[in-house]
């Protein structure tokens, strides 16, 4: 499945997935999340481990409806990659109340 989307934002189930986003769109999604946990998956379409974990991430999103899952394509959203200092994929950033609370990165 490709996450590149023409209108920059795609909804799968009740979760929002970014194929590409500008900072303002990303900030708006964080604001909409309120005090819900946000899991941001920084991925690349060419990344094998990213493709392998994607179905599990979708399962988690379905199992835990209060968690907001955002996917950011590192090749399309360089500003967000720089802000969150992403250097490997996949990287998962956990955000609560607009603040980064934790992260997990591929070695």
TrEMBL record:
PROSITE patterns: THIOREDOXIN_1 (PS00194), THIOREDOXIN_2 (PS51352). It holds the Pfam family Thioredoxin. Residues 3-107 form the Thioredoxin domain. It comes from the Eukaryota. Keywords: Disulfide bond. InterPro entries: Thioredoxin-like_sf (IPR036249), Thioredoxin_CS (IPR017937), Thioredoxin_domain (IPR013766). This is Thioredoxin domain-containing protein. It comes from Timema monikensis.
